Amino acid sequence: MRQAPTNIAFIIRDPLPPARADVLTLFGDELPRYGITSELIGQAGAAPAQPWRAGAMHAVGRLSSRRASLLSAWWDLRGLWRACRRARPDIIQVRDKIASGLLGRLAAAVLRVPFVYWMSFPIVEGFEARRDDLRRAGRRSWPAHALRAALSRFVLYRLVLPGARHIFVQSEAMAAWLADRGFARARMTPVPMGVDGARFDRARIAPAADPRLDGRRVVLYLGRVARARRSDFLFDVAERLRAAMPDSLLVIAGAAASSDEMDWMRSELDRRDLAGHVLLTGWLPQEAALGYAVRAEVGLSPIPRGALFDVSSPTKLVEYLALGIPSVANDIPDQRLVIEQSGAGLCVPMAADAFADATLRLLRDRELAASLAAGGPGWVRSHRSYAILGKRVARAYQRLRAAAPRPATPLDRRSPAAAPGREECTLTLPDGRRLARLDRVFQGHDHVLVAGQVRYRGAARFVLRVVPTACFAAADEAALIGSFLRRVPGADVTVERVDAIPRGPNGKFEFIAPDM
């Protein structure tokens, strides 16, 4: 697939330089194959600065600063200014930031380029969950968190997302969830978590030389631990495995986001006297973690059900499948979809007995485990590799660029004759009425429309083709039809909602006639 070069000014929430595969691999390796480069904008993390191979990186401020929560939007604006001075963006995209999302929308309007929002997590609902936790705990800070949650909800759902030309979401479940809130499904592209096929090639990974795994039936949990993820559930499963299969060993290859959370995990481990049956490695480089993974017989992926995680797309299950590890996962929508389509694991409710029984079944039935393991790598290569996901994302940008208005240039502003002239359309109806400039019917409705066309179908029949915003409701459609009928009484007119309309010589709202 070939397309015109595209430069994206991309404001992200994660620290720079990026470590997440859906930024590092997708935007760093895959999208440049399609001529899509990016100017990453955000705050610096703890890792040393590195060049961004797919464009440039603009780190302003540090996430470790006490003022980061207050100043990050201002820092992002400065970073966006630097990015625009280096290369004019074709698209402005913001990921998981709310105040910066509003600034990004405004900047895109000034530059006359599409604004795109990338939602990998329901951040507003996360703020509301934190508010509720603090209120239940009787913490004095909960009113401030309540104010943050309320403001965030208003800004994101009333100002940011309605102005986004396109929304990338984490899963099909998230797309359905946003559609239920009134956002057009046609403006969304689900991009679930994937894997780098080369990095997760089992043949290239050296198994961990850890004697603690020798002679044990190793079960793996690969990823972050946290109270919010109910990570102590893993100890519930380990207790049942210990009782039924004393030589089992659960390896938890991952760390918590804070030392307090990690201390909580260690204290739970000690309290339950599971030191001989659970190996808590703490943080590991990815190569080392994968070394432990390829020594495992079963991979576990328990994700709590609820508003925050039901719309997520967990990485660990897809990583297990890519490595040929038969898996046990619970029934959040994306995991259920992966298990059903790949046939490479067992899907059970998030209950300790159910997880333990499914794990023991795989440990005891080697033929079943081998059969499930064999289906994983091929399915991941064809459905969840970043090569496949990159192609999907590139197509979405291609459609977006095709529908985007051509930005004004200084030459356009100095000399109107230098820009393509209007192509005025006139039409004579069967009753002798002569019509022109029917594009003016969209005046007063452009706040709920991205683009529109009036097309004549013959015999006084018209179609109003529109690209709606998320705010375009049935009442707006009726008002638009009413505006048209005031200009052309007695006409037969319908409204057709479409995902995109290529920009014509007359701008984003035009009259095209005849179309018979």
Model description:
- It is a single chain.
- With 516 residues, the protein is of the alpha/beta class.
- The chain is elongated.
- It has 17 helices and 19 strands.
- The model is unreliable at 406-423 (pLDDT under 50).
- The strands form four sheets. A seven-stranded parallel beta sheet has the order 3-2-1-4-5-6-7.
Brief characterization of the structure:
By secondary structure, this protein is an alpha/beta fold. The chain contains 17 helices and 19 strands.
Instruction: Provide the β-strand percentage band.
Output: 15-25%
What's the Cα radius of gyration? 27 Å
The chain-level mean pLDDT equals 88
What gap, in angstroms, lies between the N and C termini? 32 Å
Shape: elongated
Q: List the total number of helices.
A: 17
How many beta-strand elements? 19
* Spatial strand order of the main sheet: 3-2-1-4-5-6-7
Helix content: 25-40%
Structural class: alpha/beta
Main pleated-sheet profile: 7 strands, parallel
Q: Stretches where pLDDT falls below 50 for ≥5 residues?
A: 406-423
